[in-house]
Amino acid sequence: MPALPLSMIWVVPALPLLGFLVNGTLALARPGAKRAVSIVGVGTLVLAFAAAALAVVEFGAQHATAPLVFSYWDWIPAGELQVPFALQLDQLSAVMILIVTGVGALIHVFSVGYMHDDPGYARYFAYLNLFVFFMLVLVLGANFPVMFVGWEGVGLCSYLLIGFWFNEKINADAGNKAFIVNRIGDFGFLVAMFLIFWRVGSLDFATVFAKAPAAFPPAGALITAITLFLFLGCTGKSAQIPLYTWLPDAMQGPTPVSALIHAATMVTAGVYLVARCGVLFALSPIGSTTVAGVGALTALFAATIALKQWDIKRVLAYSTVSQLGYMFVGVGTGAYAAGIFHLATHAFFKALLFLGSGSVIHAMHRAYHATHSHEDAQDMRNMGGLARYMPWTAPLMWIATLAIAGIPPFAGFFSKDEILGAAFAEGTVRPAWYVFWAMGIGAALLTAFYMTRLMLYTFHGPNRTGEREREYLHEAPWSMTGPLLVLGALTVAGGALNVPPLFRGGALLEHWLDPVTAAASRVSPLIEVPHATEWALVVGAVLVAGVGIVGAFRLLRPEALVPARAAPPEPGLARVLWKKWYVDELYDAVFVRPIMWVSREVLWKIVDMRIVDGLLVDGTAVVTRALGWIGSRLQTGEVGVYVVGFVFGVLAVLVAALR
Amino acid sequence: MLLAPALFVSAVLFTFGVAGVLLRRNAIVIFMCVELMLNAVNLTFVALAQQLGVAGQIFVFFVMAVAAAEAAVGLAIMLAIFRHGQTLNLQDINLLKG
Asked: What ipTM was predicted for this assembly?
């Protein structure tokens, strides 16, 4: 097959867009055409993955050291601001498009089984295709505005899919929450863009990053502001403290959506942004410290919440927040390859966990549906012993659990270890990183514990679903277990992407990303530590993970659990954790309620009703009526008055004309 | 030449006309005062035509023709008004009052 020109890279995002258009039309015209929708929805994604793979292979063969930028048309030609619609293929976006289309295609296949009986099937696939399109625009964009289009687009699709079952208010509210919280982050992204344009005069990645070291004095106020605003955008999109609260609520959407958007791809956009703008963050020590610090704090904080959640998807949601924290520790440290590596492996094992939980929920839901029961199909207290009924899902999820806990040789071990190693090494220069490292280790312990807890309560011990429901518990169909198997294989082998030299590996991903990360490394080089220290760190991290898993087996008693409806409320710290440290309540009291109050009492009752309605709208009418009244008084109907007016008018004109 | 006296007479006539329109109440009298003003203007035209050419004299015919038409329409209106209100006192006719 002859090599296609790489400028055809637009085909990769165009395919899901085509899928969206076709599925969107079908959703409006023939919502029952499920077979056509499946073929289009999954087919475009598989083709997009094939196209992306071809492009990456061709790109790899060229050994390019600079990004390939393909400019398709002038999008915003406005004086100094020249923004072309341009896509950019480099080593980083190559990794991202493979993850997005690859994991995306698997999740599309899974969705065929999961959503099969849903009346909104066509609409669902239309949204999912649209999401993939925007995500590809995000990672392929060659300048900030194009990236921002993707950034907003995935936010839109996230909103649409969280509130997919919008008949229930809780789902619609969750969608609103995600959208509104993300607006705060997007404000940061926009301000950062304005600042960059103000100083550099361009928004193209290539120009900005080439000029950045000269344009911004290192550690200056401007670059710090830019990086902090960019990171504010990241905290919104990637669910970090303080804007993480939307992600757990986003679990109201269909489970494959949680896997694709809220675990594997969209929420990693912030990590991608920091890696993409590595030069800027390297120039600002405050900026990079904030990234790593917030990441470490989020990793630990979210892990504590995950300890006490009963909803299987909420555990995974907080786990995602926590793992995203790890990625930010990585990219904040300057270990971009490690951060992106964890992004990739996390995409594999977290998608596997979410799809596995989807398969569990599917089984539970079917069982409760068959007996017309209204129990919660997602509450782990209603599960237990499912391993007997789900011989494929259970072991695959165990693999993912070991991977996320950091047990070798699964994928998560290598990536998490690399991040923690890089953080520890940075600590030798900047001591704050020792704290971040310690928080990361603490989070790793909690991760191993809460994931083992999830597995124990879900798959082991006695079954608590109910006597009548038990016979309806079944393994999911092949369209669902198939993607699980592929993701399981990736979870086992994904670590091979980037085996560090410590284990006689070639660190493939790191070398592959070298051309992208080189500019940032020149500004702030990565610190190396001796092999002996590295070994100690690795062994320590594995021990910690082991302690977490064994601890969970020792401490937890699945047989002592009672179904959700009979469970007593928990006291003390357990309750605080179950209530998520009351952060939602805090935000509600500090931000939501005051804003609602100001909106209702001031903006509505005073500004809108009194000023806009009263003063402006009614005021205009009053003034018009008054002027009309004055005018009508002049119309006496008496000819004499008119004549006097006329004569004096003529005289005035004459006087004026003769002067 | 009699230009200055002619213009003087014309001005006096015109002023009478204006004064009549302003001061009188009866519609017919006011109408006649308007005719007075028109004729004052005619006199001016004729007087000045001596110096400025024949166009002024021709214009007088136009004014007369329009005045005749105006008289026809105006008297018809007044007839209608009288039939309606049994009066031609303009102070009593204020149907267009705002």
From this structure: 0.85
